[in-house]
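Quick log. Single chain, no ligands specified.
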Amino acid sequence: MKRLLKITGLVLAVLVVLIAGFSFFINTYFTSGRLKALIVPKIEQTTGRKAAIGSISVSLFKGGVVLSDMALARRSGKGDFLSAKELVLKFRLLPLLKKQLVINSLSINSPYILIERAKDGTFNFSDLKKRFEAGRGKKSGPQKKAFNVAIQEVSIKNAKALFIDDMGKLPRAQADADMDFRLRTPPPPPPGKTQTAMPVISGDIDLKSLRMALKNIHSEISGRIKIARQISLALLAVIGKDRINIKGTAVNYQTAPAINLDISSQRLDLGRLIALMPPGGKRKKTAGRPPKAGARPPAKGAASNLNAKGSISIAEAFYKSYTLRDLNADWGYSRGAFSVNPFKTSISGGDKIIVQGNLQGSARFGKLGQKNTLSGKGRARFSKIMVKESPIAGQIAILLGMPELSNPTFTDSLMDYGIKDGNTSIDGYFNSADVQFNPVKGTIGLNKALDISVDLDLSPAVSPRVGIRNLRFLKNKMGWTVVPLRITGTTQKPHVSISRVAARKAIEKGLGEEIRKGLQRLFK
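-> predicted structure:
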């Protein structure tokens, strides 16, 4: 037994001496200058860009490599595309004998990346992608067995990123974050098989700041993101004076992401938020067009399987001259469509039209920013509508010779609406003591075209002021004068006329009623 222990101790001592000696040889022969002379030209040849490394040190005894002051230049050669103050890589020795590189930890200090999109839509890394693809295509014949690489821990401190869009469609963005990840790499596949299993990732992201600027609107997002079996996040977005809390989770994020996101705010300027959204482009007609030869089918991945839902709660929101209070909605996203169902809020204020009431309903966008994909339905009920300026009300006042109709006030109004293919159908009424628009039915087109029928009811107190004499024949059961109107044109340039068909039917109905009453009196 003692002999076995002596032999074991001797073997271990020899191994330690060999490792120490080999490590001394590595540190002596592979100096920083020699390693840079080997590595830097290879990087430059592969990328076609200038590269720099401040120093490199290798320690087999400690199982570590340290690189400092690394940088890869921009395509123009001026400034850095990638850089890092320090990279520390620690690995295991024994797996190297089996062509396995097991990295215990990878630490990167102060990395920086610059992403630019040019006016032609290309990115500042497009040339790198082409070179890598070209290099991959040149490989032919039997290949040497490559190292299987497994990384256990990744730590990134003081990471910074900058995004610049010369196309002007996306905001300029600058991020600052710390990240710590733990990775569990699946075992290498059998010979001849490709790796299909994804590494399991867990860790934390401390998003110190993500600053964006677009159209003179500055915003900043900060918070923490935890990654485990699910992703959990708690973020604070600041847009101008508005503060938005975002809390949520995501499961199955590698295959079929399912996201739950709740958004809340005490105050929110909706106009500023809408201004940050990218404009919707025109849809291209593709019906009946055969696919191009060799064209790849749409990618099927996590993005195409994305499903999301959540809630929106805003205590006070502002849009133009209107104020929305207690805005609450449930939202969802599935198969490229965004929906809000239901939503409800109270509304007040206004400039040309002052309102006070409640809104509720649902909406669905086939694609955000494209009005012709909007559909939905809802109801608006107002306890007060005061019209200070309206092209439609102005035209009605001119037609009937009643100036007071250009600035009506309603104390009870209800409007049901439905949206389909971007066009809105309406059905409702506007009532006051002496003037009623009841019913109001028709459509408002996507191009703001109007096709609306209105029965304008005037009380006996105001009907004598109508400038068209023959309208005195049109009376309802309450003795109110009924003026059937047709509104066409557009919302900015409406055309208001008396509906001849409706007027004739009303007159015929009125005359028929008078004849019936006369016959009843005659044969009574």
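Confidence is low (pLDDT under 50) at residues 14-19, 281-302, 514-524.
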